[in-house]
Amino acid sequence: EKSGIVQFPMVMGGIVPVINVDGIQPGGLTLDGATLAKIFLGEVKSWDDATIAKLNPNVKLPKQAIAVVHRSDGSGTTYNFAYYLVEVSLDWKSKVDVNTSLQWQVGIGAKGNEGVANNVANTKGSIGYVEYAYAKQNKLTYAKLVNKDGKAVEPNAESFQAAAANADWAGTPGFGVVLTNEPGAGSWPIAGATFILMYEKAEKPDTAKQVLDFFAWAYHNG
Fold first, then answer.
1. Which of 15, 43, 163, 207 is most exposed, with minimal Cβ within 10 Å?
2. pTM metric for this prediction
3. Torsions phi, psi of 51, nearest 5?
4. How confident is the model over 74-132, as pLDDT tens digits?
């Protein structure tokens, strides 16, 4: 609870790095948090960079410039993505930090998950980040990520659930858990929850009760 607001998680999902690199299939490339931060800081500029090659010894990487695509609008997706990068990169913390909107060091901005997905789909050599549903819907090539336990994992319902299962819900006020960099061999490292926010003291108590009844029904039966 914070400032008269009560929050509770409703939906779990995952934020996924998506790429458009010739010859690489979904899950065919592995990145870790430090490398992802360097790419989005503009420090790793080519797909055949030694940092990426070290993580992918059996992948034929093209000598191709990396085109970074990021959100231009404020978003929870950006917040969770940046929150993860802060956890895995001191450089990211000092140069960019975390917020819903960021002072990006490099790349082109696109509006919404749809905008990022479209830009990546249409730009050779690109990388962006989207909520998993947009990667799936647009048939985008996702990268695997190395999680906190050092395991390369794919984004899917199981790896998002693993991240949620290993989180400290009980020890976090108002269940305000950011599901990034959670432990567990099967955990996807950039998972996230969508929260329902309700005023603690509602202006229209009858309406608030109907809303809460609806969510109670959705949790149990939906």
1. 207
2. 0.87
3. -65, -40
4. 998 999 999 999 999 999 999 999 999 999 999 999 999 999 999 999 999 999 999 99
**pLDDT per position as a tens digit, 7-63:** 766 778 899 999 999 999 999 999 999 999 999 999 999 999 999 999 999 999 999
Strands 30-31 and 5-20: unpaired
Tokens matching residue 188 = 């996807």
